[in-house]
Amino acid sequence: MTKTRQICWANSSFDDSDIVVLGIPDETGSHAIFSGSSAAPDHIRKISNLNDVYVEKKLLCLAQPTKGIGNARVHDFGNIKKRQIPESFEKILGSKKIPISIGGDHSNTTLLLKALSKKHGKLSLVYFDAHPDFVSHTRNYYGSVITDSLSYIDVKSSIQIGIRSPEQEELENIKKHKLSVITPFDIIESGIKSVTKQIQDTVKDNVYVSFDMDCLDPSFAPGVSVPVPIGVNSTDAVYSLKKIVQNGIVGFDVMEVCPSHDLNDVTSHLASRMIGEVISSCKV
After folding, report:
1. Is the C or the N end of the chain the one with fewer CB within 10 Å?
2. What's the pLDDT score for residue 4?
3. Helix 266-281 vs helix 234-246: angle between axes, to the nearest 10 degrees?
């Protein structure tokens, strides 16, 4: 673990915390157009402090996320190496805390799911992404996350949101495994409330949420590794995310922010605010 500035909502010790935030600055599983997602954990922390902490009448104030259901205590664990995920999660999960992980490329999620499944069994995965990440001819990279994680998830109670750039092989795998998928057009046609209910009706116990920032339209999140037009808008995504989290999750991650290709840090700030919204809504 390396020392770094903590995210601005983290103010508790590890022992006293309900939620543990940790960074995984690793992009060794990426074949992305844009490199630089390994810089995201520290940069998101930096932006959270620059943009969500301000001085008013000589007092430090924190711009709070919108109202949630609890007052979770948060500890920032710092950064870990990818190979340290098993031992770090053994400590975190052994103390019944909810981990929030910041990547890094999306291949990190496979190891997170593996670590969580050792405690919870197969997980209901809610996967926000522009891509299905269901390639199977090549393994152990950011495009094969679902294939690599099949031993750790219950596909029937899992769902993907925001998909709009699949390969033919991925479409075949989705059909073969009967994985539920919601596209941005589905959200337009049905509305975000209806789509969120569909997500809630699909998942069962032990829900894990993984959020690739390229799920969002590049107009909201330009600083990602593989931007894809015609995406989900940020308000719809965060609304759905908060409703899912309120019912209880075992973990959450944010992946594929690419600070070097961002515009005025809007993607890092959005990622920071999303983490804050999850924390404010988390059932602990």
Report:
1. N
2. 54
3. 20
